[in-house]
Amino acid sequence: MKENQQKWWHKNVIYQIYPRSFYDSNGDGIGDIEGIILKLDYLEKLGIDVIWLSPVYESPNVDNGYDISDYYCILSEFGTMQNMNELLLESEKRGIKIIMDLVVNHTSDQHPWFVEAKKSKDNPNRDYYIWRDPVNGQEPNELKSNFGGSAWEYDENTNQYYLHFYSKQQPDLNWENAEMRNSIWDMMNFWIDKGISGFRMDVIDLIGKDPDHLIKENGSKLHDYLQDMYRNTFGNHDLLTVGETWGVTTENAKLYSDPKRKELNMVFQFEHMQLDKVPGKQRWDLRKLELVELKNVLSKWQYALDQEGWNSLFWNNHDLPRIVSRWGNDREYRVESAKMLATLLHGMKGTPYIYQGEEIGMTNAAFTSIEDYIDIETQNIYKERMAAGFNEEEIMKSFYMKARDNARTPMQWSDDKHAGFSEGKPWMKVNPNYTSINVENALNDSNSIFFHYQQLIKLRKHNNTLVYGSYKLLDSEDKSIYAYERILKNKKLLIVCNFYEHEKEFCYPITHHSEVEILISNYIDSGSDIKNIKLRPYEAIIYEISEGEA
Ligand code: GLC
Ligand code: CA
């Protein structure tokens, strides 16, 4: 990539904080902004450059802050605007930037716009939302909510239905309304002026919705809205913008992230995150992951965005199960497999994202009773599937594997009571394995997953091949090894990962003039003779190969 096209966020690693579960500073059982400030030194030690902060705005918390009732105000459980300013200041001192979650596909039903809109059909805010008359006394059409049930909710007062793609307490905004869009630009500029470094845009591919034609994602006006947003908000600032786009394809990812189009820097694509469900079904309909498919999908994205656009790289976020439980081994090979998955991802081209707790190999929640799950999605799906006659054991098994609360249990700081997360009773149960899996232990062990992440982050800062080298998949049909190269001029990286626990041989042809160096590995004594390596369970190595003179 030409020097003048290089961006700061090409070389950065982002760390996502889910504030409610990160660190509680005042013993009420709920993580807060002050708690984040207290842990900034920890994040500095890990070496991350940017924090993506999940929503901290005023919210009735039906969907843990993704239902915002005031974009200009901090939720009192989390602190005050004063605390937020302090967080920005204290992060900056440590060279850490903050990007905010931008949730503008919908608001809370408690947002003053919706409270007004509900009052009457001719209320000035009515058209900020999407209202339709009943059809034959029923919902206007068969659109479904992503949290189960119809996407339409009846409002008795005005005898119309309003649209909600999430819970009925999250009414969808009407992006056709120019005045509404202008209010959003004002709000974004307020935060930009505060000194934030960018936005993660919640379900942004839905804003072009066309409910009358049953269109949710990728509506025809989506990209016009984003270009309009760019011009009116961050266009003149050097910010990081990343869109959450569940329905994106490699083709339309370029529409979002090709710099010439002036939209976003990158999107989160979720194609690889859907490989362990029955195709065409919901993610609760489980299927085993095939490594060859994972290689196909990730490689397709690497190739497609090599020249135009940019990839974001992630295994986890607050909506996804813990990767070490999902595709690693959270029992006897927890450490090895967590490091392997980290190496595999951080070796690729794009901007890596780490979700809180991933860096110490936190595992799924291990909740066995439906009462332990707090998430509205899980509760709704449970009712829906029970009513539809699914087997309860099957439902619970799918939650065990996929429920969002798997990622939301409190951060495990130490083996103190409540995992050192809070002096009081945590809002959600801590994972009982906190006595062994915790930050304190990780920091006391130079071979921990934490230090492996630290090393991967450091590598990215100094190794241009890791940032800009082109990707090339090797042995696409191999069912247990994921190996690829990154190539920049006469430098090459070889990333080799054994994805499973059985030993496997790997051969790489090489001229005897080449010099080979191991940059990172999850075993202390990995082999450097890459013509033939015997990979141990979950062994993962990055080699640097310099071509010598023939
Ligand atoms: C996104 C968020 C998720 C939320 C939903 C509705 O997918 O990541 O947590 O429930 O949007 O805002
Ligand atoms: Ca608190």
UniProtKB/TrEMBL annotation:
Record InterPro entries: GH, GH13_cat_dom, Glyco_hydro_b, O16G_dom_2, SusG-like_C
Domain Glycosyl hydrolase family 13 catalytic stretches: 16-408
Organism: Peribacillus simplex
Listed name of the protein: Glucohydrolase
Compartment(s) where it occurs, according to its Swiss-Prot or TrEMBL record: Cytoplasm
GO terms, biological process: oligosaccharide catabolic process
Domain of life assignment: Bacteria
Listed Gene3D superfamilies: Glycosidases (3.20.20.80), Golgi alpha-mannosidase II (2.60.40.1180), Oligo-1,6-glucosidase, Domain 2 (3.90.400.10)
Molecular-function GO term, any one: alpha-amylase activity
Family, similarity comment: Belongs to the glycosyl hydrolase 13 family.
Major localisation: cytoplasm
GO cellular component terms listed in the entry, alphabetical order: cytoplasm
Protein keywords: Glycosidase, Hydrolase
